[in-house]
From TrEMBL:
Coiled coil: none annotated. It comes from Actinomyces oris. The keyword Transmembrane helix applies. This is Uncharacterized protein. It comes from the Bacteria.
């Protein structure tokens, strides 16, 4: 158990070691001989593993071929290639650790690693909460309250939202508002004994509710930002972006214009560690200028293309490094994150830490840098691997715990998979992310444990 805690904490630490390699990547790669047993028969993991290996190989080979036409940074090639290989390895660490600690505690351990990694920001950054500390604390707090009553979760979400409100963090505040709205909605639905016959229908119904909550939350954050509630700097940015002819999203992320222009100019990408030429710089600036953004301010030269190609979009960063396969890998990651949230909505008690991490992943896949993603991927993709199919999600009346108890250790971490789940130990009816492997209950045992639909436990707030 102690080894699992240490591995999970290390995976959350992105601090660089020698040769620009991160602690998390090195530990995940080194631990694979041990953690492989936890994922070797998980079907959802297989496609992630194959795409990661293919993308890493493509990125490396393309960078070698580009050496005749481009300047290639060896350190950037090494870091990009190994970070792609480390993605499935870090997921294996999470799954392996979750089988010993419980999923909730595994997420908390990774969050603690992220917190340790963000501590230097307290001395080097004027807003450390916004740029790292806040996300790590949020993962830990939401993991801690995940098996508490909904009222405790609501209080925690309100407290975290208040801190982000005064920290000029628009997107994270919107995510917390979405999660808060979802928790409140599910509390009311449980109290009213809302009856949906199947987990699939329940998930679809809640996705519609979540979409409405999301639109309201994002609109509320924009209005609050424009009114100055989030600070003068956020107010000025939001007003300027709203008045732009490109619209709020595109003016807030002019890098999308550069990405599209570069894709049109060189659709096969560049390679890991490739530094752009003057021609590529000019193409990127032209794409940003088309959105009404003035690129002649040093941002493009010093930040986007200072050492390698960084397009402030995970999918485009990996397209540039690993061609189409890199883009497909990031789209798979986004799909797994969305699928994890959908399966979690097959019951009336969402997992707050999973939603926060998954929303962060989806955002950074499309409009955030690749460098933000590796710390969150073990949590989200590991949870996605551990989840049972939606049809096996907990029924409406079942309000199970969140997996504090670790499963008993056997000779194999994963038993042969059956037709209804990726990993047999977690396909038991009523299980979910945050619930550890339990024996499949019989009708008699279910009656004895009091977990049948309509029990008093399911109506607790």
């Amino acid at each position: 158990m102690a080894i699992a805690v240490v591995l999970l904490i290390c995976v959350g630490v992105r601090r660089e070691l020698a040769a620009a390699l991160s602690v998390g990547d090195c530990v995940a790669l080194a631990a694979l001989p041990v953690t492989w047993t936890a994922v070797r028969k998980a079907r959802r993991f297989s496609l992630l593993l194959v795409l990661s290996i293919l993308a890493a190989g493509t990125a490396y080979i393309m960078s070698l071929l580009a050496e005749s036409s481009f300047v290639v940074e060896d350190w950037a090639r090494r870091v990009t290639t190994l970070s792609l290989l480390a993605v499935p390895c870090a997921v294996a660490v999470f799954v392996w650790g979750a089988r010993r600690l419980g999923t909730r505690r595994a997420a908390m351990a990774v969050g603690f690693g992220m917190f340790l990694d963000s501590l230097p920001l307290l001395q080097t950054n004027s807003n450390p909460w916004k740029f790292g500390v806040g996300a790590a604390v949020t993962i830990m707090v939401l993991s801690f309250v995940a098996n508490r009553r909904r009222l405790v979760q609501i209080v925690a979400l309100l407290g975290l939202s208040g801190v982000f409100l005064v920290s000029d963090s628009r997107s994270t505040l919107a995510f917390l508002a979405i999660i808060l709205g979802t928790v409140i909605w599910q509390a009311l639905a449980s109290w009213a004994r809302w009856n949906v016959p199947t987990p699939r229908r329940l998930a679809i119904s809640q996705i519609i509710v979540l979409a409405v909550v999301g639109i309201v939350a994002m609109a509320g954050v924009v209005i609050a930002s424009q009114s100055g509630t989030l600070g003068e700097d956020a107010q000025n940015r939001t007003i300027a972006q709203s008045e732009s002819s490109a619209g709020l999203l595109l003016s807030a992320r002019p890098e999308l214009g550069a990405s599209w222009a570069l894709f049109q100019n060189r659709p096969w990408g560049y390679g890991a560690g490739v530094k752009p030429r003057f021609e590529d710089l000019w193409v990127a600036k032209r794409g940003m200028a088309a959105l009404g953004y003035d690129p002649e301010n040093g941002y493009v030269e010093n930040f986007m293309f200072g050492g390698r190609i960084e397009l402030h979009s995970g999918v485009m960063d990996m397209w540039a490094a690993a061609s189409i396969l890199g883009g497909l890998l990031l789209l798979l990651i986004a799909g797994m994150a969305l699928a994890a949230m959908m399966r979690d909505l097959g019951r009336l008690k969402a997992t707050p830490w999973l939603f926060f991490a998954a929303l962060t992943v989806v955002q950074n896949v499309f409009v955030g840098p690749w460098t933000v993603l590796p710390a969150y991927l073990p949590i989200v993709l590991g949870a996605a691997v551990l989840q049972p199919p939606l049809r096996d999600a907990a029924q409406l009346g079942i309000d199970g715990g969140l997996g504090d108890e670790a499963p008993s250790k056997t000779s194999n971490d994963v038993t042969p998979a059956g037709p209804s789940s990726d990993v047999v130990p977690i396909h038991a009816s009523g299980s979910h992310v945050g619930t550890e492997p339990v024996p499949t209950p019989t009708p008699d045992s279910r009656a004895e444990t009091g977990t049948q639909p309509g029990s008093e436990r399911s109506r607790s707030f």
